[in-house]
User: Fold this.
Amino acid sequence: MDKNQFRNDTIQILIAVVILALLPLLFRGAYQLRVLNLFLLFMLITIGFNLIFGHTNQLFLCQGALAGSSMYVSGLLALNYGIEPWLVIPLGTLLAGGLAAFFSFIAVARKLEAIFLGITTLSFQLIFQNLIVGLRDITGADIGFIPPELSLGPLTSLLGRSQAYYYLLIIILVVTLLIYRSVMNSNIGLALKMILDDEMASEIVGVNVRRVKITMAFAGAMLIGFTGALYGFFNAYVAPSLYEFTSLDIIVLIMLIFGGKATILGPIVGAGVFTILNEILRPLGPLTVLAYGVVLMILFIFFREGIIPWIKNKTKLPLI
Amino acid sequence: MTIILEGKSLTKYFGGLPAVRDVDFEIGQGEIVGLIGPNGAGKTTLFNIINGVLKPDRGRVIFRGKDITGLKPHTVCKLGMARTLQVPRPFLNLSLLENVMSGAIFGNHNTIARSKAEEIAYRMLEVVGLNHKHYVIAKNLTLQERKKLELARALASNPEIILIDEYMGGLNPAEVKEAMELLQRIRKEYKVTIFWVEHVMRAVMQLADRVIVLNQGLKLAEGKPSEIAQDSRVIEAYLGGGVV
Amino acid sequence: MSYIPVIIDGIVYGLQLSLLAVGITLIFGLGEILNLSHGEFAVIAGVTAAVLNGVDVNPFISALVGVLLAGVFGLIIEKTILISAYKATGETRILSGMFITLGLGFALHGYMANQFALVSYSVRLPIDTIEFLGMVFRPTNLVAGGISAITLILLMLLLKYTYFGKAVRSVVQNEIGAQLCGINPSRIRMIIFFIGTMLAGLAGIMQGLSSTIEPEVGVQLTIFAIIVSIVGGVRSVTGTIVAGILLGVVYSLVSFLIGTYIATIFFLLAAALTIVFRPEGLLGHKV
Amino acid sequence: MIRPKNGRIILDSFDISKYEAYKRTELGISYVPAERELFPQMTVIENLELGAFTKRARKRKEENLELVFRLFPRLKERKNQLAGTMSGGEQQMLAIARGMMTCPTILMLDEPSTGLAPKLVAELFEVIRKITEENLTVLLVEQHMTQALSVADRGYVLETGRITLSGSGEELLVNPLVKQAYLGV
Assistant:
């Protein structure tokens, strides 16, 4: 909107990206690089979820199914028909976007409250999980399958596989954030702020609220689907456990709530904190679930607004 | 006088009970028409039907010769019909400037540039008398200021007609006078037709060209304010039967 | 006629689901808290009763201890961690309640799965099987069905005829109206949370009686109970019970004829389609 | 429902402005809002029984039931009908009757005539007059000025939050300023 805002946004995004880009120089071990990649993957999925839940209050509880259906479609097509993965990933991405747009359409057409959209999408998540296990001849059920290698061109030989993936994800992140920022500073950004504030008033003032919501669900889910596919190819082994409610949806939800809904930096910080926490908690085995449960309760009892809005309020810094 | 807005036998039921029944009306270009009636008469429901918040069970709404029945509020707004609400709903977490710009950007029939929208917003905030508070966040406003802000937001969309749902409630006599001057000015300077629900009778009776009276969802009477004030049916609806 | 035992199994299973789901229905109807930890209360009671039963405590006393433990724990939860949700209004309350209980569900699940890992628990009666007209019935199953049915009937009588029951229905239908009658809604909510979690506990014990209960099934129980509650109409107790029996029977039949995963998918679709096409539920009225 | 920002409400010289709504009912203030707030999917008799929920009211349930059935014979005829299926006028009667079941010392009626046809309004005020004969204090907020004032001992005219006129019902009835306040002429 105004020049200052634009510069402020650019600086903050630049700082974040530079820090992220330097991390592989500090953490070079194979395990550390894997964790760094997971960090970026979850961050991108959280940004996608933020577009849907954070900006338009549509409670989707099927991030895992969106990411997973994208991966299963593209991975299986690539594996079974020998198609170049880069050619089928867009198909998976579009599928995820289409599914989300469909749910969003139903929600606005039937005027579903958040809780009912949540349950509908949760049903879809669980149907997806059951289908993957049920269609074992195609999906390999719990055993899963090994997708073909995704070629990253000269990057791989230059940096090694993990680093190549990492910088590919950094590029995707930069593109995402730049688009995100310009959208937020455009009329659509204003419409999003208005909708978050008061849907009925937005409609009366002339905003096509339905269209904005469906579009955001489509865009957010495309990002989730695209990242979800990269997650599977990066993991080099695809099993339902990657995309389960407990292993993906809940973590993404916690990352977003902790970081702060409807902020640009929130998903980045949230993904960072909980990727580290996840690694610390890993040795606990089944108790990890307990720990996540407790964290979720604490977040919603004491910390509903999220860390970025909280810092913003305390320090008056113009965080985005 | 050309007719700008027309309602034909508008009817709406809530759970089997009629809220608005067979209401016909015509509003001419440039008029100020008051819509009055006791609580529960169906005034707000009628407004909701006109601008598309509710779909009528029967009847049509014609706006500038076009049938707009069943169109969504955002489309109706772009066609040139703005609206303010009984309980004002500005965007509480946005600045006053952004609030009014939202009207200019999204409510306008034509696409307008941001800089132009900002210019309009400044002007409208001045018109309603909030020009010293551009960067204040709307949740810090008093109820009266919120009403003004909502009016500015509605005006910013460059409407042909504006539906105002109670503007004067809670004002002291001096403020009522000021508000009346504001409405006059809006009509004169911006050529906006005004369809206006109001409980402060003094204001309606002085300002409106015509008054429509609703009671129990039915149109009870229609005419010049002086005629309405003498109409025994109206008096009975307001004050109860057996009036002196 | 091999279908009859399957159908009877289905009815018993459905009654157990109803027992779980009426708690969800009542708690949501009164305070707009969708209890996403509900199934874990069934696990707590079921496992407690089975463990006590395993060390030769009388089955009846084991069950009683299990049910009371679930109820008391529910009461504590209602009076502590849910307070922040009750303070909020509208959509914020619904979302907070949903996520706080989701967190609680995970916490309980993590704890139970860790503490009582990979073991099936069951509550046993001293009789084995009964043969009737050439068909084999398990009496435990019939006892579980009977107890569930009697409990549900008692609950409906309580709601229909006692002052307390009428007060519950009044708060569900119109909280302001209830206050005008001198009814304290938060007190009613507290008692119903206690009763609801006890009913969940009873459902867990019945499952331990008719088959087995594992700490792992908590999440599934919660989800199935929510689906039953939604298909029944979220605020209608009668609808919930009807939906429970219906879905239980269909689930058993589909599992038997095709497979469990298709039956589960059917269950989930039933919820999604109800929300989209008939949000007021099967019977379409409140309480 | 809404607690006052300043000032106190005194009942039998107790300050009750800080109590929650259900406590006020327990203390003997019965509020009958314009929205009526009935239980639509319960029968008339169930609605009335719930009015007698508090311990104090439960003791006198039978005699109060008799009283409201005497005042509102139509409710007695329809005691097994669901409240939500009744007409507006009947619902208003039920709301008032339920208010009386709480055994109040003061009965507050907020715009009881809202949405009622003129014939019903007349009937309503007839009942209100009868209620006052039962030795019950009634506080009435009403748009239908003439009828309200004709049953009232005292009246107050509120304009934008301030009391602008007050006096006995008969005095106000003939005061031209009252009409002006309403109609603006």
In short: Residues 173-190 of chain B form the longest helix (18 residues). The CA atoms of residues 46 and 151 of chain B lie 19 Å apart. The radius of gyration of chain B is 18 Å.
